[in-house]
Amino acid sequence: MRFRRLLLGVLAAAAALVPAVPAQPAQAAPPPVRALTFNICGNVCRHGETVATSANIAYRIYHLRASVTMLQEVCYSQFLAVQARLAPFGYRATFAPATTGGQCDNHDTKHGRAFGVAIVARGAFDSRVVYRLPTPYGSAPEGRVVLGATVRLPGRTVFVVTTHTTASGPNLATQLNVLRRWLTPIAATSPVIFGGDLNSLPEDNALDGFYNAFTEANRSRVAPLPTFIPIPRKIDYLFGSPGFLTPVGVARAYTGYSDHCMYLGVFR
Predict the structure, then answer these.
(1) pTM above 0.85, yes or no
(2) How many domains does the chain have?
């Protein structure tokens, strides 16, 4: 018994000398993702003009502190100018040509008057994909593509996707259906932001699948923030994958040179 008491005493003394395991600090939440989408109307509205257009877009991206920006109707020359202005601030950019813009600069032998969509991110690109959207119901006057990029942002990696669907008709529903079937399973297991000009109203049946599988930054499908200027209505969207990206606010800005507003959504 005496030996047991001595042993317990030694063990207690030894335990007192062992430093306590420090509590692990709670992991800080990553910074919010500030997602911006903007149809710049770079061919029709801006007639392909580059210097002033790119300067204003770059200025707004920087001062809105956009983590990722999705641009539609952008001439290749306008894209290059935006990219050059933002590169010194840690932004990277990628472009996908969809068609030819008649008033875009004839930039080089490879791109010519290329006109399409772009993603700008304040982070690194791990990979990117470009797919041409189908037009099974007759030839379309303007080609359409979808551009996706895996972007490493502070604290998280997000698959960012943008497109500009056809304006109307049966090809529009087909394109939206293809996009939904592609993105829905990805969004179920990882962070996805899908944004752009979808040429559709929130109440359109073709958007049901997106509203079911994603959370739109504006949240309200009944009284949304209009993004198109000539006829005030919402046709620009920012969808985030639920469980990974929660919308906490939206804003819009008129630029004076496009028929669309800049549309900003913040996700945490």
Answers:
(1) yes
(2) 1
SS3 at position 258: coil
Residue pLDDT, tens place only, 87-139: 999 999 999 999 988 899 888 888 888 999 999 999 999 999 999 999 999 87
In a domain, 3, yes or no: no
The token duo for 119 is 């993603």
Domain limits at 180? Answer: 30-267
Q: Which pLDDT value is given to residue 234?
A: 98
Structure-token pair, residue 5: 């008491």
- What is the b/e burial string over 157-195, where b = at least 16 CB atoms within 10 angstroms of the residue's CB? ebbbbbbbbbeeeebbbbbbeebbebbbebbeeebbbbb
Q: What angle do CA 223, 227, 231 make, to 5 degrees?
A: 90
In a domain, 22, yes or no: no
Q: Assess if residue 5 is contained within a domain.
A: no
CATH number at residue 217: 3.60.10.10
228 in a domain, yes or no? yes
Cα dihedral sign, 136-138-140-143: positive
Confidence band for 71, pLDDT divided at 50, 70 and 90: very high
- With residue 11 as reference, give the H or E element that holds it: helix 2-17
Better pLDDT: 223 or 177? 177
Which pLDDT band holds residue 11 (cuts at 50, 70, 90)?
A: very low
Determine the straight-line distance between the first and last CA of the chain, rounded to whole angstroms: 62
